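Handout, section 3.2

Students often ask what a structure token actually looks like in practice. Rather than define it abstractly, here is a full record for RteC domain-containing protein. The first block is the sequence as you would receive it.
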Amino acid sequence: MNTFYSEVLQLLEEEINDLNIQTDNPISLSEGAVSLIIEKLKQVKAFILNKEFSSKSEEIFFFKELKPKIVSKLIFYNAIYKIEMKKPHGSSRDTKNYIKNELGKLKIFFDNNLDFYKYYRTNSTYLDHMYFVRGIFEIKLSLDTYYFESDPFFSTSHDFKVAKIIANDLIQVYLEDQLLNIQRGANNHIKNSSLSSGLQWTANKTSLTELIYALHATGVFENGKMDIKRIANFFESIFEVDLGDFYHTYLELKNRKINKTKFIDILRENLLNKMEEQDL
């Protein structure tokens, strides 16, 4: 079971990484990711329904540790889709207030589920036989209405709540990064306006990050002594683009199974084609 699940999860993460490379639009990314996750969940569900768990401990491990990893991704990307669709396009103050309100919703969920948060965060196990075994539930243990609507053969009373906790952590980071970007954008607007080249970067941000790391690795600035962050900030300034967490983007590039230097390869191919055309 673990091998099958690990393969499905790895393939899902690779496919989501590919989507992330193809688009910088969080709405398009979320739409694509949700479709991928639903398909993978169907595969996992079919596998589980056709296979008996060898023991209660294996069942608990699946519903406490494994299933929530995929379901949390579904919750996360579905939430990001809704957040981005409803985000105001007015002033930065309106956007900040909107994001703070979304963060407040996460706090409400935390407050309403404090006891289970403590149980899960402390790696407790004494109620696992109630929380993560199918067909067993106790309404006094803070059950979500979702449980009564879910498939009893593929759900326990609290596996969705674990997924929700994991997803909320990711959503919080996403929202806090957006607040930071708004503040950083406001601080840098005046500071960097004089550095703007007037050129618009129309490829995706992942491609620019790949180019920046290639230049840094080659040591073309200050004989290789310039810090990667300074290089990234310079490119952000001249192209008026926010690369966000460019180090995280680099890690995604590094973890690609195929074609780690996709953009650099495209540059090389296009330049060679141009040279060949001019020789004709």
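Discussion prompt for tutorial groups: Residues 79 and 171 are 8 Å apart (CA to CA). How would you have guessed this from the sequence alone?
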